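Budget justification note: compute hours in this period were largely spent on complex prediction jobs such as the one shown. Inputs:
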Amino acid sequence: MTNYHKPEAKLVQELRDIANKIRIHSITSTQTAKSGHPTSCSSIAEILSVLFFNTMRYKVSAPLDASSDRFVLSKGHAAPALYAAWAEAGLFPVKDLQNLRKIDSDLEGHPTPRLNFIDVGTGSLGQGLAIANGMAYVGKNYDKANYRVYCLIGDGESAEGSIWESVHFAGHYKLDNLVMIFDVNRLGQSEETSLGHDIDTYRKRLESFGVHAIVTDGHDVEELIKAFYTAAHTKGKPTAIVAKTFKGKYFPKIEDLDNWHGKALGDQADRVIAHLKTLIKNPGAPQVHPQKPLKDDAPSVNISNVQLSSPPSYKIGEQLATRAAYGTALVKIAQNNPRIIALDGDMKNSTFSEKLKQFDPTRYIECFIAEQSLVGTAIGAACRDRTIPFVSTFAAFFTRAFDQIRMGAISQTNVNFVGTHCGVSIGEDGPSQMGLEDLAMFRSIPGCTVFYPGDAVATERAIELAANTKGVTFTRLNRPNTPVLYPNDFVFAIGKANVVKQTDKDQVVVIGGGVTLHEAVTASTELSKAGIGVRVIDPFTVKPIDKETIIKNIKEVGGRAVVVEDHYYEGGLGEAVLSAVALERNIIVKHIAVPTIPRSGPPNALLDKYGLSAKHIVEAIQEILKL
Amino acid sequence: MTNYHKPEAKLVQELRDIANKIRIHSITSTQTAKSGHPTSCSSIAEILSVLFFNTMRYKVSAPLDASSDRFVLSKGHAAPALYAAWAEAGLFPVKDLQNLRKIDSDLEGHPTPRLNFIDVGTGSLGQGLAIANGMAYVGKNYDKANYRVYCLIGDGESAEGSIWESVHFAGHYKLDNLVMIFDVNRLGQSEETSLGHDIDTYRKRLESFGVHAIVTDGHDVEELIKAFYTAAHTKGKPTAIVAKTFKGKYFPKIEDLDNWHGKALGDQADRVIAHLKTLIKNPGAPQVHPQKPLKDDAPSVNISNVQLSSPPSYKIGEQLATRAAYGTALVKIAQNNPRIIALDGDMKNSTFSEKLKQFDPTRYIECFIAEQSLVGTAIGAACRDRTIPFVSTFAAFFTRAFDQIRMGAISQTNVNFVGTHCGVSIGEDGPSQMGLEDLAMFRSIPGCTVFYPGDAVATERAIELAANTKGVTFTRLNRPNTPVLYPNDFVFAIGKANVVKQTDKDQVVVIGGGVTLHEAVTASTELSKAGIGVRVIDPFTVKPIDKETIIKNIKEVGGRAVVVEDHYYEGGLGEAVLSAVALERNIIVKHIAVPTIPRSGPPNALLDKYGLSAKHIVEAIQEILKL
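Corresponding output:
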């Protein structure tokens, strides 16, 4: 701190003025919208003013520039203040702030990357810090650039466990290019937070989680300048600034009072604005300007046209788990693109993501047993197209991060999720470990591409395709070995189903995925002995589903189909097929899936017990042929 | 601690012996099963021995007795050790332990309440403490009984943020009848945990979260006895015992080594068992026995036959949000049953759960912004049929606790979830706050009853039915006002759809839920002017869906249906209907849902923009009539 100089009074006043302008904009824009969170904006006004006009280095002309500092507003409901800071910085006219929450404006109620200055959508609380971690990890370890990452967190949302997973991650990986700011304004939505203004408890918690904590008055511009300076000079650990603030600061008769969350000020607005104007010395355009990055030191990165370094190399009939092929594919794409990275939650020896760690330990990020942090970190790492992250764990455990994945789609992320150990076919570990609702979950994510590869060849190609696909992808993989079905040179495509078995005399179509695809093949072979032709279709992707191939083939066999999946009945492959044929007359579909909470037992015994084995598929075919 | 007496040497040796018997059983049962986690069992052997044979007060004859101490094994993969403790305590023959993981045995790979001594399923990590909190909160505040709650947590899973949400809850509510034991055995599944044996950091973190932390040697029976005694005499805060342990303790050449997670010992088993036998002084049946509860002081509780204290009282056409009717219904059932409770995550003024708090503050549990803790606490509170919990927040935010809800179903819980602010109809707050995948999520939960009441009358009855329904329930509610459709004496039933509009000359069925039901009614009225009869069906429950009524009505109108829902396309009402008609020829269904990530805007503008308004339903009907 030897070089620290106290800021000049003029600068301090200017930053105070900007803070109060941010307050006024937050009030007027929410007034126009008749909704929003002006009091939540007010508590962070000085923090934003100091960050955007003194501390951060960025380009107003290129808000998502690779070498610039990043800012994540985890408490997304304070969006009007963030929009105001960017407007004051000169990115767009201040008058545009009045478009807040209008249906044709990107200035939505919560931040969205539809805006050219937003990396990720926020608004579901407690998620910003994991994203900031991902950005900071990439900055420190891959970009090796000088940009710094700032994340502003509300005290209410710091009750979310995801915040503490992320504080731990930041401390563990010594992300000293990261500053987390806790806006401790005491008040939640419906009552005081459980810690209120107990600043010292925040400090102790943060310190125990491996962070350098600095307590400040969050409305004191000078203290904030000094705190950010100190943070920038703190090496070996991230800094947390615990800012004591007041909700509705400088809003007379509203400040620090209950029942003012999430509402425009209404008939109080004029009075409050009048008061705020008395605090402003320079009502004109800001006299200070954002600082640019010292240098453009983030390397240029190419994340397009990723290819397997060598084609799949298996023998038809060879027994291999698709999860094992995942590990192989991951290394192959990593060999061809240095920005392929893998993240896992202490499951790497089960998901085979450890193969990438063995190939290049620097490109594997261990996130330990903290799936929300795992997913959020990946979303952060993918920002500004810096990396192509693959995130693996058991399919069931992605349910832990459904909210993060949901927000990932809103954030337009390109993260690739890989879920192993799906369905009852995992065997003895029992239902807590079985992914039986993962297809329902990922299908419901807008724009998500859901791969369900049937063998090792298909898996390698699914992973290659995923790496090149915009938006969220999910690849569903099996624990047990299954035979290789496809030749090594088979060409797969998203939304293109493959007919894996057919004759001219087929009477029914069976559609299966993963283990049940193989059961369907067995059932088909069995019934062919009895002279019943069964066409077998592998959807390859469950979303988008290949409507055309499915309808064409079902029509060709006379309108009968059986869908069999190692998943619960709802939301999976069966309902994807039903949606595809919804407007077709004369198509009937018999759907077989897991009907109840399964037990522990050997994989094949469970497939049989829950009605998914070849024997049951044969029965289903015999039944539907009578209808 | 003045009354503490050092235990006699004989007792100490006996408890050591029991610990080593637990180790041997864990090895032999996983050997027979050829899978499982014997090393994870070994680290907790002394903890279980001391708890089950010295500390805890319970009835072996009635393991889920209301007045007995509770034990939650959060690290569920150590199930074989827990099963062994109960067998040694005399609940079932020791030889039955060899049925571990067999398909016809309830001794599953992870604990399940199919067993008569298990309250909740565990195995997805980091969830046990929230459940223990729920039990302890009920014991302290509702039962006002002497039973105590013990929760054993792995160090690997303590990386889960949910654990820290729960530690905070326990501290905040001063649950001094709760003891959390952290089994710090250093090793995760695939590598060392991020904190390893840094016991002091665990202690600091726990203390900063409001807990009395005691550091012990987890393999020292005397230290453990003393620690549990101290915990029992600590008032005003929960105690955390930080037990330093070793994975595979007393397994020579395996203890404290990597690569021994989750596997039977194989050819090392005989050698290890031989060594363990040398440590045992008394190889026969235990000479110490569990202590019974001092008194049967948990009150008897009746959670059956819950009824509204007065029938719904609305006027047809009256404008009211179904979320508001929820608050009314909650108070009405609470008036008739003292064990109705409500939990919320700082959304009570939006979800109207605050109405119960206003009626009886003792029956409202504020869980702050920590949805995983919120859901887990409710599951704990419901255990042993002590309460009927209603858990509310925005429908979107239940995605945060999908894993807990999934495990709740495995736990056979009776928790009722209530999700408000579903769909684009919430308006300006934007997509982060909109529940658009909640139906997909809850439909995928086995046995879950999914209510989607169409008005205030239906909502009151849905809540009444939910209170009486076994298994998980979910009720989906709207933010905006909608008109009352049903007379106050209308009788609703689970799985029974209601035809809300019909003529003899209908040409199409429209099925809608919540806001879209009202849009469908409007569309029907509109088209009737053009002489087109449109039958409108309210499903009331999306799961189970009323297959019979739906098929019958669609057939009556000639095989055409339109389904319109304020939800994404996948996994919701539309696919529920498609599943219902899957085996019907000559039925076609046009499905309208939210096609993409929505924007901020006024509710009605959004309904129109995303194709859900009456105008679009009219268009869809006109289209399907051409097919």
